[in-house]
Amino acid sequence: MRLILASTSPRRADLLREAGIDFDVIAPTAEEIQEPGEAPADFAVRAAADKAESVAATAPAEPYLILAADTVVVIDDHCLGKPQDESDAARMLRLLSGRTHQVMTGVCLLPADRTGNRQAFVASTRVTFHELTDAQIREYIATGEPMDKAGAYAIQGEGRALVESVEGSYTNVVGLPVERVQEVMASFPD
Predict the structure, then answer these.
(1) Tens digits of residue pLDDT in 128-138
(2) What is the pLDDT of residues 31-78, one digit of tens each?
(3) Where are the domains of the chain?
(4) Of 59, 96, 107, 146, which residue is the least packed, with the fewest Cβ within 10 Å?
(5) Contact 4, 25 (CB under 8 A)
C-alpha cells in the first residue's frame, strides 16, 4: 500500500526519507485549533485525524495509506504552538528555559478508501532546556529558526544548543515518532 503524507512539513518528509519510506505528499486543509478545555494529547490526536480525513476526501481511489501528524509542545498543561512573532517566540523560550516540557505528536494512519480501521496514537517525549540568558534567546530568535516551529525551537537545527536532555523519541521532537509509525504501518495489509 502506497503512503500519502498529509503534511507540508519538510522535517516530516526528511524523517520518512531517512527511514527509507516512499511516499507522496498531499497538503491537508484542516485547521489546527485547540478546543476550549481540550487536553493537549487529545488535541494532537484530533488535529492529526482531521488532517488525515481532509486528505482522504481528495485522495486518489488507489490503495493508499494516509499518514497525518500534529506536534505540540506542552508545559504546565498548556500547548505552545508556533510563535506569532519574535516577541511571542521570546516568551515561549523564556517559559521553557531551565525546565522540562513534553513534546507530543498525535499521529493518524487512515486507509484512503476508508475500508480499514484508522489507527491513531500520541507519542510523548520529555525535553529539558538549559537555563537560557536573554542574550541567548535574542541570538536564537535572530536566526529565524523558531518562527515556524511549535514551542519556538528546532532540536534538529541550531535549537539543539538549547536542549540539555531528551527522554524518549528524538524523531518525535523533530515532528514524527518514526519508530512507532513504522510499527503501526506494519499492521496494515499491503
Answers:
(1) 999 999 999 99
(2) 888 999 999 999 999 999 999 999 998 877 677 899 999 999 999 999
(3) 2-185
(4) 59
(5) yes
Q: Whose CA is closest to 81, among 177, 152, 140, 143?
A: 152
Task: Report the distance separating Cα 190 and Cα 176, nearest Å.
Answer: 22
User: Is the four-CA dihedral 142, 148, 149, 152 of positive or negative sign?
Assistant: positive
pLDDT computed for residue 116 by the predictor: 67
| pTM exceeds 0.85 for this model | yes
Residue 13, classified by CB atoms within 10 Å of its CB into exposed (0-12), middle (13-18) or buried (19+), is: middle
Quick one: cell of 133? 540568558
Answer yes or no: are the C-beta atoms of 84 and 20 closer than 8 Å.
Answer: no
Q: What is the CA radius of gyration of the chain?
A: 17
CATH domain 2-185 topology: Maf protein (3.90.950)
Closest of 10, 173, 158 to residue 100, by C-alpha? 173
Q: Is pLDDT of 90 > 80?
A: yes
- The residues carrying an active-site annotation are 70
> CB-based contacts of 72: which residues, under 8 Å, 6+ apart?
40, 43, 44, 79, 80, 81, 103, 104, 105, 106, 150
